[in-house]
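Message: I would love a firmer grasp of how sequence relates to backbone shape in proteins. Thank you; the sequence and its tokens follow:
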Amino acid sequence: MNEAPLSSIFLRFAGISLLAVGGATAALPEAQRQIVGELGWMTSAQFAETFAIAQTSPGPNVITFSLFGWRLAGLAGLIVATIGILGPSSLLAFGAARAMRRAGEAAWLARLKQALIPLAIGLMAANGYLLARGADSGLLTTVITLASAAFVALSPRSPLWAMAAAAAVAVCAGRLGFL
């Protein structure tokens, strides 16, 4: 565990929270840029591993940032990171909701809402790319990533099937010495 200062964790996560257009997952590219690239608090592999643990845990996606805090500074880091990622964005959302309620059906508001859709999708796509780049350490992990993405994108079945298949392949590959 890297002991990052609590005040730094709070300030970084508070800033990142204001970029969470589309939810916490959409802010992950900026989190990765800061936590891994700029500050060196984690490696790309640690970042991707923490994200994967959070995504396979029940609960909201924002748990990812709580786990980043835990990894950086233990229980105190978890608490500070959670407050940092939830506080500013919640206050902004509250203020925006009040303003939107007052604006009613204004044309500018409809255009703004339409513009935010591709922004959120672009942020999520960037997130997928950055996480795959950090987690895919070889041909097998790259194939698992691409096959999982294709399955989820093209199949009407639950993503749990892709998770189960990826886990089975990883366990077998590990036992055979490929991972």
Remarks:
- The chain has a mean pLDDT of 87.
- Residues 137-179 form one domain.
- The chain has two domains: 6-135, 137-179.
